[in-house]
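Please fill in the sequence for the structure shown.

STRUCTURE ENCODING:
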């Protein structure tokens, strides 16, 4: 799909991997709706895209809140009149051991990482069906395939859910021209993994953390050249998990 003048929504687009995805799609000519629970971050990225000559719209949106998700999509459609790409990137880390994990901590991570993907996808389907075309790209995690290494069990379970959500939705929407895929990063150098021990690098055959831009490249590939790819989970993990 030629990306110039297409409209992309990137959740959690204000920082880290989401920021890199927003910038990469903008460089391809997409108009980018930067949805983030942190409006200060979303505005900063939108401004950066504007300074690069692109068009971006910052929107405050907590992906676990159905009303805010619906409002983000409404604002995006009002501004750009169409939606071509949704990148479900917003996510949070799970903390703690299972034995002591409060129910609220379980729910918090599942609500953002998995229900958020459901709510955002649901909100764009009607518009994408009307166009007869669309791309939904979910940011999963190696933890969703191999189990958590450091993050809490709620994190790996949420990402395993994202992987099966991706495959199931791909089947459901294929006949409407909507491709649904995921990228599963390993350890990527962002604020999310700041507190992880430096020794995690020893688990990575390529010997270093990933860069946010390397995840963004896979997203751009799926958006631009993924016409015949759906229900696929692309590992970008330095070889940490091979399947
Ligand atoms: N960094 C890694 O090593 C790594 C590895 C595998 C997967 N991932 C996944 O990549 C995605 C991005 O991670 P990151 O490392 O860039 O994290 P990050 O913490 O640096 O950035 C996350 C962004 O999402 C936003 N956000 C958080 N909760 C939100 C919510 N409820 N609604 C909307 N926005 C919200 C934050 O404000 C922030 O801008 C996440 O889904 C994460 O699970 C990251």
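FILLED IN BY: designer on duty
SEQUENCE:
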């Amino acid at each position: 799909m030629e990306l110039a003048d297409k409209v992309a929504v990137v959740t959690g687009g204000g920082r880290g991997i989401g920021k890199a995805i927003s910038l990469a799609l903008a460089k391809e000519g997409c108009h980018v709706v930067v949805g983030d629970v942190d409006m200060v971050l979303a505005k900063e990225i939108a401004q950066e895209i504007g300074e690069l000559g692109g068009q971006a719209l910052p929107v405050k949106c907590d992906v676990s809140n159905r009303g805010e998700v619906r409002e983000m999509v409404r604002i995006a459609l009002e501004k750009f009149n169409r939606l071509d790409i949704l990148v479900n990137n917003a996510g949070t880390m799970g903390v703690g051991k299972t034995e002591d994990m409060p129910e609220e901590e379980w729910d918090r991570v599942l609500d953002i990482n998995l229900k958020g993907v459901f709510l955002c996808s649901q909100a764009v389907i009607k518009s994408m069906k009307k166009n007869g075309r669309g791309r939904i790209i979910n940011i999963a995690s190696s933890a969703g395939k191999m189990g958590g290494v450091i993050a809490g069990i709620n994190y790996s379970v949420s990402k395993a859910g994202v992987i099966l959500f991706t495959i199931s939705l791909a089947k459901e929407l294929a006949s409407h021209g909507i491709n649904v895929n995921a990228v599963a990063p390993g350890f990527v150098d962002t604020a999310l993994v700041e507190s992880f021990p430096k020794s995690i690098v020893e688990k990575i055959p390529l010997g270093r953390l990933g860069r946010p831009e390397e995840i963004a490249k896979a997203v751009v590939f799926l958006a631009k050249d993924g016409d015949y790819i759906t229900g696929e989970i692309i590992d970008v993990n330095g070889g940490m998990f091979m399947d």
